Amino acid sequence: MRIETYGQQIEVTPALKEYVETKLERVGRHVDQHCEVRVQLSTRKPDFLVVATVNLPGRTLHADAAASTMYAAIDILADKLDRLVIKHKEKHLPHASHALRDNDA
User: Is the entire prediction scored with pTM above 0.70?
Assistant: First the structure.
């Protein structure tokens, strides 16, 4: 998984970049293929805004989060992306009931 972190009217410090990568590692565990993630950090007074786009083969997932601190916004974003990737993965797995019916025939 490749993560590109950039800021819009905000400087992305090495600490912020490392925090984003650490938080999104868990999303990468749910992805079987190589994917790219673009994370944009910005401010929208009084909140901090984080927007992410995950490019999976055949699908693009998008999530955003806002919070009073940048770290809290990144945490919320990581949770949202985790749920989106799991939901996407479940949609593309064959259902157990279909597999059972196919084996019985």
Answer: yes
56 CB contacts (<8 Å, ≥6 apart)? Answer: 31, 33, 35, 85, 88
Dump pLDDT digits (tens) for 1-41: 889 999 998 999 999 999 999 999 888 887 777 889 999 99
Q: Which residue has the tokens 């989106």?
A: 84
Using DSSP, state whether 59 is helix, strand or coil. strand
Contact 65, 76 (CB under 8 A): yes
Q: Find the Cα–Cα–Cα–Cα dihedral 30, 38, 23, 26, rounded to 10°.
A: 10
Which two structure tokens, joined as six digits, stand for 67? 């919070």
